[in-house]
Amino acid sequence: MLTYDLTERAGAPLYEYLYRCLRRDILSGKLAAGERLPGRRSFAEHLGVSPVTVDAAYSQLVAEGCVEARPRRGYFVAALALPDAAAEPPPTPGRPEPERRWRLDLRSNRVDASLFPVGTWAKLTRRVLSEDPEALLRSVPHQGLYELREAIAGYLRGYKGLSVRAGQVVLGAGAEFLYLMLAQLFRGAALAVEDPGYPQIRRCYLGSGAECIPVALDAQGVDPAALRASGAAVLHISPAHQYPTGLVTPMPRRQELLHWAESNGGYIIEDDYDSELAFTPRPLPTLSGIDRAGRVIYMNTFSQTIAPGLRAGFLVLPERLLPLWRERLGFYSSAVPSLEQHVLARFISGGFYERHLARLRKTCRERRVAVLAAFRASAFAGRIDIREPGAGLHFLMRVDTALADEELRARAEARGVRLAFLSDYAARPGGAPEHVLVINYAGLGGEKLGEAVEALEGIIN
Amino acid sequence: MLTYDLTERAGAPLYEYLYRCLRRDILSGKLAAGERLPGRRSFAEHLGVSPVTVDAAYSQLVAEGCVEARPRRGYFVAALALPDAAAEPPPTPGRPEPERRWRLDLRSNRVDASLFPVGTWAKLTRRVLSEDPEALLRSVPHQGLYELREAIAGYLRGYKGLSVRAGQVVLGAGAEFLYLMLAQLFRGAALAVEDPGYPQIRRCYLGSGAECIPVALDAQGVDPAALRASGAAVLHISPAHQYPTGLVTPMPRRQELLHWAESNGGYIIEDDYDSELAFTPRPLPTLSGIDRAGRVIYMNTFSQTIAPGLRAGFLVLPERLLPLWRERLGFYSSAVPSLEQHVLARFISGGFYERHLARLRKTCRERRVAVLAAFRASAFAGRIDIREPGAGLHFLMRVDTALADEELRARAEARGVRLAFLSDYAARPGGAPEHVLVINYAGLGGEKLGEAVEALEGIIN
């Protein structure tokens, strides 16, 4: 007869342990389909337990469908067709996936973490957790914690001259999450994006099932004729400092794009991703700031100014879009953790964010000057042409070379250097010229700059 | 001549202040299109500044397109077509949006926050920030912090008997975010969901542009015939404890669904949302645990066991899906903040999570017993029929009443009570019977239970 050592049950109730033993053997096939289980009385006697214990175990197995009770005949192992064990390879033991570590990464902008006042953030975190411990657990409203939205609105009113109230602000878990939300807000509409442009925007929109149309740029930004021809109802742009071209869209073009939106009943998503770091000269007013018709959605994140690891960004919706937003997206929970929202609210409203931005701007400005000077004094100075509109954390550098971009990239990667080319950002084949590097210089502080110059000398020459 | 009080510039450089004054007046229309600006020398003299200051301000305005420089004629205000100022209402002053506060909410499960060891969480947060301050800022890999994925995999190996390695785990900012990712993973495939079911699942899939087919349930869960007829390639289910019906899918049906996936080359998303709180009897093995063919994606969150405000959930992908995941979704940044991932990793690997779960299970078990006893001793006991499969945080309660669900709801809301009806969760009209309440009892501790009984007496009788 079936035997289980019930002394090994480690504190579990007898019936439960017995049930688990039986189930294990049924699922493994050790007890075959159709096999009759021992009668309750004799099994109980054999195991030295009460028949009630066996009853309880059998009942549970019957309830789960692992055993069939046939009236007056007893209990039988059910016919459980086990899936083929061969198809899926067993998991290999854990080890972190190797990630490519770059000696030098000119493709992404990561300002040194040492500039961020981690101590202040830690202090504010401790303060929230001691003053209001349940802030960690309480859900925040769909659009985000009110205090945070008010802090963001206050910042935008004071530093961008935007006329914003907290009720227009929606928090999201970073830019990509916000793109996914916008795709749902504008479901059914075709979205125009800049070409060349930031590929994540296209990928998020396409992944959300949206129609996404790359629109060519001229010297002032999105070309209105191409925009009209696209048939798009929504335009996603970065007029303050386009990525990767660095274009700053001048006022008349901004007005023209606003007119397009108004006369077509369309909308413009103004992705202001790096405008906090536009240091010289003063940035133009945002589209959102000159929009009187409620046609512009302003969007920004804290990824460039604090860290991408924070995963916090926000939209400012025009009043007219709030009802549609609530209808289509109001069911989502706020995707940013509550605790982080409380801490970020205090970080902004306490003035720490502004102070950090001032330091950051100063560092970036100095870094830019140093990078430009070093490149112009380098051995490859005669073979480059730097286009430098004085905003944001990157600039374009045309290289006089016979090598194709892919050859340059291979030479760079062999040196542990990651490069970005303008051609990487084109949505359509040939949508951007070759031989133009996008230099993301935020990380080129201290000795990194010397390393970069040396590496580029080896790659370009 | 134009006059600005340059003493009001509050520390800004003279040229910049002048430029901003001019721009403000151009954009507001105070300086009309075509108007000639004062000559640089006379304007400088008039304002008491150097001509260089006026030059700098004018140059900036020209660069931005707000002013045109006409050779040998001077500077003119550009023709900026200002949008109509009437269309968008000005924002109203800030005030938190009123949110409906329920005296009693039987629609959502919120265990008292007092059960969670906030002090431990705070201590771990402080420790991360002091031992590794840059953890706040460093980006984590796309799938999430390795240490956290390893902690989750270890938990699943130890407590669910799942054979999981960290490389299969993907973190996401809560269940809804993971639904959006899954919709992108299975782009082009029709997804079947349970009907009745959790409406957020349908809404997320539909919002992502996926085809989403509600499939009827029989007494064991998803009906295989209806599933086959749906033509879906992917099935999203909660076999451990379906929401809202409370159905536990028995083993033979689980096997049948696995077979469906294998023979169709399909996949099953196993949403195990509340299985940590299935307390009596022991839960069945997960679909993922008996899947040998790599056809099941396991999914869970910390929303029920810690708090929805944490916004953290995860998927376990079968090995065979990892390449497709990387191709379609590998470009996304991890949507959970880095700091939170570090703290959660320590919370799980330090054994704090298990201890918390044990306390939580005990409380929920006691609460369930108390709620059932109180309902059965109530004045409405003779008019209810409770269906109670002994898993998770809710049960169904059929009410013998002539009132329609909407009438019951109105009576409840008049008392500040939020009810959930089975019929609320039907995707198709008539997809669920009336008069069945979904009782989410996790919040009914202490005096809340007495309040609930009293309120239900008033509503039902």
TrEMBL record, chains A, B:
Q: Which Pfam families match?
A: Aminotran_1_2, GntR
What does the record give under GO molecular function? Answer: DNA binding; DNA-binding transcription factor activity; pyridoxal phosphate binding; transaminase activity
Q: InterPro entries in the record, alphabetically? A: Aminotransferase_I/II_large, HTH_trans_reg/aminotransferase, PyrdxlP-dep_Trfase, PyrdxlP-dep_Trfase_major, Tscrpt_reg_HTH_GntR, WH-like_DNA-bd_sf, WH_DNA-bd_sf
Does the keyword Cell cycle feature in the UniProt annotation? no
Please give the CDD domains that the UniProt record associates with this protein: AAT_like (cd00609), WHTH_GntR (cd07377)
Annotated HTH gntR-type domain residues: 12-80
| Keyword Transferase attributed | yes
Keywords attached to this Swiss-Prot or TrEMBL record, sorted alphabetically, are:
Aminotransferase, DNA-binding, Pyridoxal phosphate, Transcription, Transcription regulation, Transferase
**The family this protein is said to belong to:** In the C-terminal section; belongs to the class-I pyridoxal-phosphate-dependent aminotransferase family.
Q: What is this protein called?
A: PLP-dependent aminotransferase family protein
Q: Which organism is it from?
A: Candidatus Scatomorpha merdipullorum
